[in-house]
Amino acid sequence: MEGKKQTAVIIGAGPAGLTAAYELLAKTEIRPVVLEADELVGGLARTVLYRGNRMDLGGHRFFSKSGEVMDWWCRMMPIQGKRSKDDLLLDLDDKMLPTNGPDPEKEDCVMLKRHRVSRIFFARKFFDYPISLSKATFANMGFARTAKAVLGYLVTLLYKRPERSLEDFYRNRFGGPLYKMFFEDYTEKVWGIHPSKLGADWGSQRVKGLSVWAIIKDVAGRKLGRKGSRRQETSLIQEFIYPKYGPGQLWEMVAEEVKTRGGEICLRSEVVGLLTQAGCVVGVEYKDAAGCIHTQECDYVLSSMPIKDLVSAIRDDGKPEEISRIASELPYRDFITVGLCVKKLKISNETAIKTWQNRVPDTWIYIQERDVKIGRLQIFNNWSPYLVNDYENTVWLGLEYFCSEGDALWEMGKDAFVGMAVDELAQIGIIEREDVLDACHVRVKKAYPAYCGSYYKLGKVKAYLDEWENLFCLGRNGQHRYNNLDHSMLTAMKAVEAIATGSKDKSAVWAVNAEEEYLERRRP
Predict the structure, then answer these.
(1) Phi then psi for 359, rounded to 5 degrees?
(2) I want to staple 473 with a disulfide (CB 3.0 to 4.6 A). Which of 119, 356, 393, 478 is the partner?
């Protein structure tokens, strides 16, 4: 008699969860059931649609040093039915020229090849990010700041601070003056605490190879005509690929593929309990949109829900009190984006890149100014012209704020928040208030797992979770690690590999983004 088909419950329909569902269908006979609390798939990598304009929450560059991930993207995003990398990487760099904008002749493309342009806005001036050694950088800094920066870096060559904090990490690689100009205030905006109170391992995971010396080597290599290699510091990459309609386009396609192949995706389904028996999770309880509780039996659970919520949901009479306490105190940073449609920007393009109506070419701008709360500004026109409803006559912006659930920013009403955001952007000279046409307001909980507080006891929680034989923790929140898109996908791939081979060893899943060489890194 044929045995009953096995079921895997996947918690979360973000990059990790949907990758896991797809891989299970491709490599095993296990049926995935994906439970997603939101009404959209994609997690933080979803695309939000507002009156014809699309927002990429957080900004997602599609680049990885993992060939496995790059190949996966190529398979998922075909062009006119073709699936080769050459077809996928359709070069639309001409869209950065004055004739850019949506092109009806290229409507079948699904990926754009984009120039990487990100800068820091500090003292009402633009600086390259990563910091370059250009004439413009030194001119904007002025003689006094430049002299201090050079002296500060030379000091780091003679004396390295013990790396007990993120402040130590940055000072060792850039020197005190550059750290204070370009890292200190921005980092405090992101995390809500001073870098001296954040762990140095955050820097190790995000910008391990980035330093003044790395920038010097990169500049020298380019002068000698050497192209970037796989060993190049990823923060220095010059190009990346990007879905035409934003990252959500990819995950919507993956979700449809999962359903076509026999998987199930349940939206607005919030996990409230994990039922356990004899060292395994045997069922998952979830609440639907109407508030009704359902139980889904399972043979495996792959979780990308925050560890804080996962531990709380596990029904285990023997759960140590210490584990519950550590998990409940894990810190997170939440995130608010204001989508702002404006007639034009007040700032103009002074780079060598030609752009439509002389608009600045940046995908995002890090706002280092101390007199405003905004942390980062996205210009969606430059990610993809297809994100903007009226590309030629409007600029579609994303104003990003970092906060904590329950604080003043989080509790501020929509109208008041949008008003504050408009005032701040006008205050620092980016826009004129009268040019604002429309706005929206999107809040995201637990967007960034923080590296402070009980994070340093996370190993005990990890050991407890690994005791559940059929439970795998995936993705950014699932591992409480600042994973990027490719990292999250790789954790899912490693988990499915373990399931497919019958391995009970989960070390490869946890090892993603913890190796000597990291994958895609960028400033948060």
Answers:
(1) -70, 150
(2) 478
User: Hey, which residues does 113 pair with through a beta bridge?
Assistant: 241
Backbone angles phi, psi at 476, to 5 degrees: -65, -60
Does position 150 have pLDDT exceeding 60, yes or no?
yes
Angle at 122 (CA atoms; ends 121, 127), nearest 5 degrees: 60
Strand order in the sheet with 125-128: 125-128, 118-122, 364-367, 376-379, 395-403, 332-342, 436-449
Cα–Cα dist 70/18, whole Å: 16
C-beta separation of 495 from 302 below 8 A: yes
What is the per-residue pLDDT across 415-445, written as a single tens digit (0 to 9) for each? 999 999 999 999 999 999 999 999 999 999 9
In the chain, the amino acid numbered 433 is R
Cα gap 443→99, rounded to integer Å: 35
Give the pLDDT confidence of 369-387 residue by residue, as tens digits.
Answer: 999 999 999 999 999 999 9
For 509-520, the pLDDT digits (tens) are 999 987 533 333
All domains of the chain, ordered by start, with CATH? 7-41+250-328+452-511 (3.50.50.60), 61-116+240-245 (no CATH), 137-221 (1.10.3110), 332-449 (3.90.660.10)
Measured distance CA(306)–CA(312) in Å, rounded:
10
Q: Which DSSP symbol is given to 162?
A: P
Q: Which two tokens stand for residue 110?
A: 């699904």
- Which one-letter amino acid corresponds to residue 70? M
- Token pair 């970092």: residue: 402
Please give the structure tokens belonging to residue 279. Answer: 């060292």
